[in-house]
């Protein structure tokens, strides 16, 4: 595996990403869709390749042979051989107290569903969300509401679109909130919630907190113990990692604790999928589960990807999470300043969320309210290989509420309004932002918006 110099400049890191070396029509890619998924460095691909080539066996200490040992060592670690496994690497990355608090999942969505389906809700419990949840942290709760088990409620932000702690506390005082489940960093606005305060208040009222940290963990230092969060979910593919790996963090006494009979029995969080790898023993009429995290990881796993997840974490750690946040902030300030200077007074251009770029990490989402405002993303890609996202970013509920029911099928209606999202990561450059800005300006002129 190629060694990485931790003091290398961010520009030099670009060489680690083969996709950035591609050319179409003589021009490089300008990849600004990182909130969707990130590019993958050679180091992560080499880790995958190494596993498939050299030890394509099962993990989970099922088989006791050479190849299986090499897989299990790289995931569960082997102190005798000085190998730190991916589970430990992930635990240290988010500052978990124990690697047994790290459950590997397919992605954030899978992790959130594990909580939704495994949590011992009682009829009438309330799950409290924000007004801007990704479908992955909305639909699983709506499903439970539809089944008559819980009620879903929402907190509303203040008029600067910042989290309103007072309104939040009001909800906790009035309702039967059992679980607070919130997008830690919004994939629409890039705004990061005051999670520590939220968790402190929720705990005062006896509610547990699940953070959907899909957009937070890849971009900033996360310390689950300092946050005192109960559950937290994220995906590796949003941080240079392999596709198909996510993490559900759960406090040890929640993942592993059996409830007393008078509390209803069973786990605080019940494993939803059972089968191979989840049980210590079984008879024709009964089974005994393994301790967490194993009881949550049913069946043969994507072992090469779990190993490569460790490589991805090492990669971003060598860059430094503070450095990543700072760089994204610089790019966002530049983009926000340029866009607001050019179009801030037009009346048809608007940035979503807090107006201060400092509050929006590496995400900048804007609305264009002009005739034929759709398909700008396609044109940016066609003209200069600039890749951004348009549409509703899997946050249909928010856009339906704001723009009117039915707006969320933008390609099939002729509303003269569209929303676009630019999202940066550490390998993006100011030059790339300039290419985006110039091409956008060209499109606006061609469409006679200016
Ligand atoms: C805030 C948020 N939550 C959840 C998800 C779902 O992530 P995944 O598709 O990896 O499950 C995303 C992905 O865009 C997201 O931005």
Automatic annotation (TrEMBL):
<dbReference type="Pfam" id="PF00266">
    <property type="entry name" value="Aminotran_5"/>
</dbReference>
<dbReference type="InterPro" id="IPR000192">
    <property type="entry name" value="Aminotrans_V_dom"/>
</dbReference>
<dbReference type="InterPro" id="IPR015424">
    <property type="entry name" value="PyrdxlP-dep_Trfase"/>
</dbReference>
<dbReference type="InterPro" id="IPR015421">
    <property type="entry name" value="PyrdxlP-dep_Trfase_major"/>
</dbReference>
<feature type="domain" description="Aminotransferase class V">
    <location>
        <begin position="30"/>
        <end position="433"/>
    </location>
</feature>
<dbReference type="InterPro" id="IPR015422">
    <property type="entry name" value="PyrdxlP-dep_Trfase_small"/>
</dbReference>
<keyword id="KW-0663">Pyridoxal phosphate</keyword>
<protein>
    <submittedName>
        <fullName>Cysteine desulfurase</fullName>
    </submittedName>
</protein>
């Amino acid at each position: 595996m190629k060694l990485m110099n931790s003091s290398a400049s961010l520009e030099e890191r670009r060489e680690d990403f083969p996709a950035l070396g591609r050319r179409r029509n003589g021009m490089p890619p300008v990849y600004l869709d990182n909130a969707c998924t990130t590019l993958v460095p050679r180091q992560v691909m080499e880790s995958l390749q190494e596993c498939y080539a050299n030890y394509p066996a099962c993990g989970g200490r099922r088989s006791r042979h050479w190849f299986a040992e090499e897989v299990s060592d790289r995931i569960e670690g082997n102190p005798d051989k000085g190998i730190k496994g991916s589970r430990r690497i992930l635990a240290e990355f988010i500052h978990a107290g124990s690697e047994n608090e790290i459950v590997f999942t397919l992605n954030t969505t899978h992790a959130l569903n594990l909580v939704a389906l495994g949590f011992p809700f009682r009829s009438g419990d309330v799950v409290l969300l924000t007004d801007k949840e990704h479908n992955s942290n909305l639909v699983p709760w709506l499903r439970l509401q539809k089944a008559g088990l819980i009620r879903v409620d929402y907190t509303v932000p203040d008029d600067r679109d910042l989290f309103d702690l007072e309104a939040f506390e009001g909800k906790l005082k009035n309702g039967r909130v059992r679980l607070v489940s919130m997008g830690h960093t919004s994939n629409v606005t890039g705004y990061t919630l005051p999670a520590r305060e939220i968790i402190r208040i929720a705990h005062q009222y006896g509610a547990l907190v699940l953070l959907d940290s899909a957009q937070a963990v890849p971009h900033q230092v996360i310390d689950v113990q300092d946050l005192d969060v109960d559950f937290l979910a994220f995906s590796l593919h949003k941080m240079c990692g392999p596709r198909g790996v996510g993490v559900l963090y759960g406090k040890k006494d929640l993942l592993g604790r059996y409830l007393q009979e008078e509390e209803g029995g069973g786990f605080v969080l019940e494993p939803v999928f059972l089968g191979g790898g989840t049980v210590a023993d079984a008879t024709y009429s009964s089974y005994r589960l393994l301790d967490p995290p194993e009881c949550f990881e049913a069946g043969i796993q994507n072992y090469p990807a779990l190993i490569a997840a460790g490589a991805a974490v090492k990669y971003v750690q060598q860059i430094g999470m503070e450095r990543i946040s700072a760089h994204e902030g610089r790019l966002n300030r530049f983009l926000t300043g340029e866009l607001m200077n050019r179009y801030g007074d037009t009346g048809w251009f608007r940035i979503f969320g807090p107006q201060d770029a400092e509050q929006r990490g590496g995400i900048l989402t804007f609305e264009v309210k002009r005739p034929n405002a759709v398909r700008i993303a396609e044109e940016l890609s066609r003209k200069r290989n600039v890749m951004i996202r348009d549409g509703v970013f899997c946050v249909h509920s928010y856009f339906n509420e704001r723009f009117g029911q039915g707006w969320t099928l933008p390609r099939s209606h002729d509303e003269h309004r569209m929303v676009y999202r630019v999202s940066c990561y550490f390998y993006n450059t100011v030059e790339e932002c300039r290419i985006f800005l110039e091409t956008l300006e060209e499109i606006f002129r061609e469409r006679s918006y200016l």
